[in-house]
Amino acid sequence: MELGMSPDILHRVEAYIQQERLLTPGDGVVVALSGGPDSVTLFDLLHRLKAKWDLTLYIAHLNHQLRPNAESDAAFVKQIARNYPVYIGKEDVVQRAKNKKQSLEEAARDARRAFLDAVKQKTGANRIALGHTKSDQAETVLFRLVRGSGLTGLGGIRPISEACWIRPLLSISRPEIESYVRTRNLQVLRDETNSDPKFLRNRIRTDLIPHLQKAYNPQIEDLLSRLATLLQNDDAHLENIAEQALSETLLYRDSRKFILDVKRFFGYHISLRRRLIRKVLFALQASAEAARFQVVERILDISSTPGNSVQITPEISAYRTHDTLIITQPARAYCFLVEPDVPLDINGKFSIKILNRVNQEQVYNCYSSSKTAKHTVFFDLDQLPNRALYLRSPRPGDWFHPFGMQGKKKVSRLFGDSKIPRPLRGEIPLLVSGVTILWVVGLRRSQIAPITPDTRRVLKATYSSMITQCEKRHL
Q1: Alpha-helix residue ranges (DSSP H) falling in 320-397
Q2: In angstroms, rounded to a whole number, what is the distance separating the alpha carbons of residues 328 and 386?
Q3: CA triplet 114, 119, 124: central angle to 5 degrees?
Q4: Which of 34, 45, 396, 457 is the most exposed place for a label (fewest CB within 10 A)?
Q5: pLDDT tens-digit readout, 313-329
């Protein structure tokens, strides 16, 4: 414990809660309670603040099935929190690690987060309180340093993340926690796996930090904690800049792809370009492993030369065109029945209408203007091969008879001739009549069912906002 510090850390923790805006009066809080000194201290402090802050506390404990006495740990938690709702979960973390090809630590962390989030949803709470301390912060900074983290990672543990995960003890060291436990005569559990040297974090805790304190600086935990705070502040500022840069660089986005303006992209400093790529990868649900430094550098490498591409994960790839950088997930196959006056939103707005008469001048303008013909087409309704109309994704071997051209042409060849980037080809809809392709939407109509002087009923199809145009959007 620091010199002059009272063992009762209640007021310091409350001040930290106020400073970081971790709680507001009336909050519902899920308290992660393992039974160890940190979590028991957290529970005791929130119990003492409950009336003043009008808090509703829910206790959550996950049995990881890693230790022989795990069942008795759950019983202990039920006993010390007997006056509160207690939620006990169980997860075979070893099996989870095997199934997801994770380390034991990663699997345990993900299992805890999933369990605590489930309790939050079930109870309607709006906060999840975790027992991370200043000592944990110091260990995390060193852990990430030796693993090669960048600025964001070296910022360590945030006081609040994702608007609900709070860490009220981040300003309190582990010795202060132990002193509080003794002063308050709290019963706690001791987890023997916390000293197992096979885990890197444990070796940092038991070997590296004591060595740094003894040989270099007794206040190393305070310094590392302060460093983390400074880096968090810098990181938050750079994230705001990156968010603005992304909005300026973005040409198109949806749930599965981002298309960036290469000229603007290369106008930014290299550090900002890395952040933009990481933001895009995380927006596409990439894991931290998939967004690591080496992956970001590979994307930067291919982005310098048109035609280059890289497979980032089985689900995400990056492709450089002449003037865009596309980061995308694979296109999903689709097939939708098309009905008159029922708009469809498939990578753009699509609709058809049946007209009992036709403006010949309008049809002529559509045929003669390549720009208009890409977005509006007319067919003789009575000459269609099949009245069942579908809008579907391209398939291998697709071919059609292009309007104004003898013979047939593969759709894939049309994509190549039109310089449609490969990652976007699966996004181009095809309007089909039965099995016959009427229109490669936005590119070329077929010669099937043209309008003639004998036409009595007309099918008018329109489509807008093709992603291949990469029109600037304000999202």
Answers
A1: 360-368, 370-373
A2: 35
A3: 125
A4: 396
A5: 888 999 998 899 999 98
Return the SS3 of 103: coil
Check residues 48 and 374 and name the one with the higher pLDDT. 48
Which among 165, 68, 190 is positioned nearest to 114, based on CA atoms? Answer: 165
Q: How far apart are CA 389 and CA 448, in angstroms?
A: 13
User: CA 9, 14, 18, 23: dihedral to nearest 10 degrees?
Assistant: 130
Backbone Cα Rg of the chain: 30
CA dist., res. 471 & res. 371, Å (int): 15
Domain spans, the chain = 10-231, 255-328, 335-469
Residue whose pair of structure tokens reads 């080809």 in the numeric block: 425
DSSP string computed for 212-268: HHHHT-TTHHHHHHHHHHHHHHHHHHHHHHHHHHHHHHEEEEETTEEEEEHHHHTTS
C-alpha–C-alpha distance, residues 441 and 350, integer Å = 9
Q: How much is the pTM?
A: 0.78
b/e code 32-61 from CB counts within 10 Å (16+ = b): bbbbbbbbbbbbbbbeebeeebebbbbbbb
Domain over 10-231 is classified CATH 3.40.50.620: yes
- Residue 461: which of 413, 412, 389, 408 has the closest Cα? 389
Distance, first Cα to last Cα, the chain: 51
Residues belonging to the chain? 475
* 20 vs 12: CA distance, rounded Å: 12
The pLDDT of residue 358 is: 59
Q: Which stretches of 307-420 are assigned E, i.e. beta strand?
A: 309-311, 317-320, 324-328, 335-337, 344-345, 349-355, 376-380, 389-392, 399-400, 409-410
For residue 148, give both structure tokens. 């090669």
Angle at 430 between CA 424 and CA 434, to 5 degrees: 150
Correct CATH for 335-469 of 3.30.300.30, 3.10.20.600, 3.20.20.140, 3.50.40.10? 3.50.40.10
Residues 330-363: pLDDT tens digits?
A: 888 888 888 887 878 776 788 888 887 655 555 5
